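Q: What structure does this chain adopt?
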Amino acid sequence: MGPIPLCVLLPLTVLAVVVAVAAEGNAVQDEYTWPQWKVPLVRKRRTVPLSSPNFSARPQSELSGTCGIECQRRLPAISLDDLEQLLSYETVYENGTRTYTSVSVQGFNEVTAWSGNISSSSRRKREVYGTDTRFTISDKQFSTKYPFSTSVKISTGCSGVLVSPKHVLTAAHCIHDGKDYLDGVQKLRVGILKEKSRRGKGGKGRGGRGKGKRRKEDKGKEEVEEKEDNGGRGEGKGKQRGGKRRSRRSAKSEKPSFRWTRVKQTQVPKGWFKGVSDGLAADYDYAVLELKKAPKVKHMDLGVIPSLKKLPAGRIHFSGFDDDRPGNLVYRFCSVSDESNDLLYQHCDAKPGSSGSGVYIRLKEPGKKKWTRKIIGVFSGHQWVDVNGDGTQQDYNVAVRITPLKYAQICYWVHGDSSECRVA
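A:
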């Protein structure tokens, strides 16, 4: 066969380069796309009644005894029976009664091997590192809008995040200390930020009843949201003439306030309880609260990501109600330093009160250009970690990551039907 003419070889070379560049582009694109995970099924096996809790525990400012990355390497592989015991859970109802539900896990061996990468970055001091990088979201135009509007306050002093129209994900230690439920859980409430407006003189501030009614064309965005807070009740007739001046006078807005909603039931995994998980309790520091009434606020879905270190920038975001800035929503972001199969170690600036916040990232939906935020962890807070397994304690800011198994369990709690939770 003779030599290939240059006029043929050149186009082929160009085509090969184009194909290579396109393939590389697709590989880069995949880094920005939510992976699809087949998750196991968590099914209810049996539910039995328990005696009512004492509700005598006190809130914990920080946790200790967490088995860290190196510590966990020395533990034996967990069996399916042990795993089912850790994922079994207690449910506490608003009337103070309690049940225990054992579960079965199906399809666990079908799930792609779950592994987290571990980095060798340096460890630092806890909570706030040097310059405080937290942002106070005090402007109602931001704090009551997505994604910040998904953040909620728990009446025990923690934060949480809406993961369905009426379900809140938070940290287990905000509800239970490992031995008993906290004082106040029997009357647990969740606060959702809403805009607070000052009505005109004589107005009752409740759907525009009484004096101070407003013209329909002057309601604006603020009153539409207030109508949602009022359960869709009317804003009053509002057909007075010359109402513009009164409308302007009554539209002066203030700092957002909370609209509190009672909790119908609370679910905590058994893996969080003392003497059950042999040092792995921090891996199960999460709980789900079902609200009696669904607030008309957009929620954030759950997501599963195998390694944050492989993501571009590897940053996480979360917002909560830090104790040192009362009444304000505080937002922060930072890079993840270390990660294990179940925990994320990071240096996000945080203070007590932010525990239970939903940790999220933003990636593209598969096959689409749309960027979507999803919850990939629950901020647990400052913890003293047994790093080497020899009892030496080091302090970290830690988040519990959403694994395929935890996704399956939380999804089952939310939907009540595990068949809706096959793919994350």
